[in-house]
Write a structure and sequence with these properties.
- With about 270 residues, the chain is of the alpha/beta class.
- The chain has a single domain, classed as TIM Barrel.
- The chain has eight helices and eleven strands.
- The longest helix is centred in the middle third of the chain and has 20 residues, at about 140-155.
- The radius of gyration is 17 Å and the shape is globular.
- It binds zinc ion.
Amino acid sequence: MENMPRHRWLPSAVGALLALSAMAAAAEAADCPREGTLGTSRVLAVDPKLYPRVGLKSFPQTLPLHDHEVVLTFDDGPSPLTTPKVLAALAKECVHATFFLIGEHAADHPDLVRRIAADGNTVGHHTWDHPSLPKISLSRATDEIDHGIAADELALHGVAAATPSTPFFRFPNFESSPALLDLLQSREIAVFGADFWVSDWIRMTPEQEFKLLVGRLKNARKGIILMHDTKAWTAAMLPTFLRYLRDNGYHVVHLVPLAPDSGAKQL
Ligand SMILES: [Zn+2]
């Protein structure tokens, strides 16, 4: 949830390696569904009118997931150091996630934003630079939300649109206010909390994180999971976690925006 230092440059050798791994991951993503992988079990189109805010950590309502169904969400990216590893892990298991991007990071790394989407993942919004929105004025908070959406849309589609192509938003640190919740609802932008998280804003080893996450999953049995694609330990842990989901009968649900002709089941 917290912000991270931004990396404005990369040594060329690292950049070349990332490009190679990106090509390999894109090939794997294009080759889905693939036998032996976890795979996305179903696609759900979320209607913000029916589900204006979801996630039991913040709200009384959440998505109607079945037992052993999970939704993977990642916040605060993209980061050139860790997001490619997360994308590679998802592509290897043929699963899709929702990424709530920080607009400033999207502006710095539009190529990564496009890759997130090209791999079949969903792009949601997480403000321009991750302030605590209730601590600033309503007009500044509104600007933060709008600027973030515009930056994400510019990276995705080349146009700084005010209306998000995917109307999904998550508050930085889950800090909302009644006025901002009303504003987003009036604009038909669904607010995503989480049903549980892995607390990866705390530094830990991938092994510790895996144990913590599996313990919380066993307790919750289903739900929207919050992780951060900006954390090295999460990127390192993810392949093991996805394999655990596959081996233990869990199913990954992919959320998409509501579209009349999408063919997805409408919530
Ligand atoms: Zn965040």
